[in-house]
Amino acid sequence: MPVPGRAANVGAYTPEANLGIWIDKALFGIHQDGTTYAWTLASLGFGATVLMGALGGRLLKGPLPGARKIQILLCAGGSCLLAGWLLSYVVPIVKHIWTSSMALWAGGWCYLLLALFYGVIDVMGFRRWSFPLVIIGANAIVAYMLFQLIDLKAISRRLFGGLAAHTGNGADFVIAAGAFGILWFILWYLYRNRTFIRV
């Protein structure tokens, strides 16, 4: 949709000519967060993504046999990927503003990965390797919020900056891995002390 006050430029997704960001600027004015992320219009896509997750969780908690659950997840994943790909010819897949095609594309991959992990861990019973993932999942909200509230990369630079300096092009990876390791250790500590924060 063309942005008011601009020449009709159908299919424009730049920060200056995209409806999602224009709506945010119109609603929030000087209180906009200063990023080029869209929130108001994109919240429809976020909501759809949350609903897809809720449907997947409801399926897994339901009474159907494991093999049937995997079939449904695989069909849902393939259908979402196909729908997202087809829709991308009309609405491009843009993560930055979480377009509807992006919601379908991401949801499709999530359903396929959910089918894989559910099949391997719950149906086939290979659980031991998944412990590091359990630590993250047990306090997923804390994991998300810590990255927003604490500059873990700055802490990682202080701790691992010397090592990163000797890795050339791998420096960014070392810093990111260090930040993730710090986060994981905090989550492990919470898990060990049976501290879980949920909504």
Please describe the topology of this protein.
Layout: H1 19-28, H2 42-61, H3 66-87, H4 100-123, H5 131-138, H6 140-149, H7 152-165, H8 171-192
Helix pairs in contact: 2-4, 3-4, 5-8, 7-8
- Average pLDDT, all residues: 89
Give the fraction of residues assigned to helices. 55-70%
Distance between the termini: 36 Å
pLDDT < 50 runs, ≥5 residues: none
Strand content: under 5%
The strand count comes to 0
Radius of gyration: 21 Å
Biggest beta sheet attributes: none
Task: Please indicate the count of domains.
Answer: 3
**Shape designation:** globular
Enumerate how many helices there are, as a single number: 8
Sketch the topology as an H/E string, one letter per element: HHHHHHHH
SSE-based structural type:
mainly alpha
Task: Explain what you see.
It is a single chain. The radius of gyration is 21 Å and the shape is globular. The protein has 199 residues and is an all-alpha fold. It is built from eight helices and no strands.
Keywords:
8 helices; 65% helix; 3 domains; mainly alpha; globular; 199 residues
Summed up, what is this model?
This protein is mostly helical. About 65% of the residues lie in helices and about 0% in strands.
